[in-house]
Write a structure and sequence with these properties.
With about 400 residues, the chain is an alpha/beta fold. It is built from 14 helices and 5 strands.
Length: about 400
């Protein structure tokens, strides 16, 4: 079979925009407390952002958002706090109990999810906050939330629900809760007259000078005091710079197993596997995904967008090889044929599940080279160019 590589196909081989980075972009949230309308909550968010930019100008957040707790009637808010405190006590009990008896963390997560499910049904604000966090995670952003007062209950519950480990970090201010998600830092004045009335709240750990009878407001008291001002900003700064790579292989964009510029491919894959059938270009992109996924010894930054382009581009070059040598290349079809059919392998497990669901994506070495190869590669390269646009948009936000 004679293959014709046209100039339009060769144009697809031009280098893609790519910036190796496994430290996901950060988004900063401020979670307000009770008796704050949206204007007041935004003032606190903006003040926090302004002070951070002034003290740590090198910390560049993708965006700064508000995790808003609606300012409702006093009795409604007090009832919310009561209900959230009961949930807080129950969750703290199960976490402590699990640590003491070394209970399987998955079993504990199942129990905790039931509490959060009830809260989501009862509290619209919690549901909206979780949806906002989920949107940020889908974009590949890690989350840092500074929570004030009742906002701590919301943030603990939301992060328990998301359960995405090192992609969510919490910093507590004036917390009525008995815990901070993943033992994050907290700042509560001994003279905070609101928190002092709440049983089982974390013990106050800062002294305000001069002390007042109230000392609970975020801007006036906690950002107004030099010690807590500096410590809160430092906590955000240190959290911002404390990025870690994934310890286990994962196709979840939030896991940081792949470079940030691969997030659009991972999100696209999630959408594709819900379909009944796939196009040839989609099949080849999945082959390439599993090939990059299974590369032992590679770092996160080496599992990047360029690796996808390189592999599929090698397929195009190999198809144009007149000698048709079965040599080792980055093309997943050739690589797969050298080491055994990837759709018969059980690592990564997702590949076996994929080819079971989409048997039409299975292709032998000869089928690829003699029949659909050129069309498949061209379609995959066009698809990559479309996904590259999404990558570029994410980088420039």
């Amino acid at each position: 079979m004679k293959l014709t590589i046209t100039s339009s196909v060769l144009a697809l081989l031009l280098p893609l925009f790519s910036r190796a980075d496994c430290n996901s972009p950060k988004v900063l949230y401020f979670a307000n407390g009770m008796f704050n309308d949206r204007v007041g909550a935004n003032e606190s968010k903006d003040e926090l952002q302004k002070k951070l930019q002034r003290k740590y100008p090198s910390d560049k957040f993708a965006t700064v958002k508000l995790a808003f707790n609606t300012d409702e009637a006093a009795l409604i808010q007090l009832h919310q706090v009561f209900r959230q405190k009961v949930t807080d006590i129950n969750v703290s009990f199960w976490k402590s109990f699990a640590n003491l008896l070394q209970v399987n963390p998955k079993d504990v997560s199942t129990i905790l999810s039931k509490y959060i499910a009830v809260e989501k049904l009862l509290d619209v604000d919690l549901s909206l906050q979780i949806k906002s966090y989920q949107a940020s995670l889908k974009n590949g952003w890690s989350i840092i939330t500074v929570a004030h007062s009742q906002g701590n209950f919301y943030t603990n519950s939301a992060f328990d629900n998301l359960n995405v480990g090192n992609m969510t970090s919490m910093i507590s201010v004036a917390t009525p809760a008995s815990r901070v998600f993943q033992d994050g830092p907290y700042f509560t004045f001994k003279s905070d007259g609101i928190i002092g009335l709440i049983p089982t709240a974390l013990s106050p750990n800062f002294t305000k000078e001069p002390a007042g009878l109230f000392d609970h407001e975020f801007i006036k008291h906690y950002l107004g005091d030099k010690t807590t001002h500096d410590q809160i900003l430092l906590a955000v700064h240190e959290t911002y710079n404390n990025a870690t790579e994934a310890s286990e292989p994962s196709l979840d964009p939030a896991a940081r197993y792949f470079d940030n510029d691969v997030v659009p491919i991972l999100n696209y894959y999630k959408e594709v596997v819900t379909q009944r059938s796939l196009l040839p270009g989609q099949c080849l992109l999945a082959w390439q995904l599993f090939d990059v996924y299974a590369r032992h010894g590679a770092t996160c930054t080496q599992r990047n967008f360029a690796a996808f382009k390189e592999g599929i581009s090698d397929c195009l070059k190999d198809l144009d090889d007149k000698n048709q040598e079965r040599r080792e290349t980055n093309c997943p079809i050739y690589r797969g044929m050298d080491f055994g059919s990837p759709y018969q392998a059980y690592f990564p497990a997702e590949s076996h599940d994929f080819f079971t669901s989409f048997p039409d994506c299975k292709m032998s070495f000869n089928d690829f080279h003699e029949q659909e190869g050129l069309n498949e590669v061209t379609a995959a390269l066009v698809l990559l160019q479309k996904l590259e646009t999404k990558t570029t948009k994410r980088e420039t936000k």
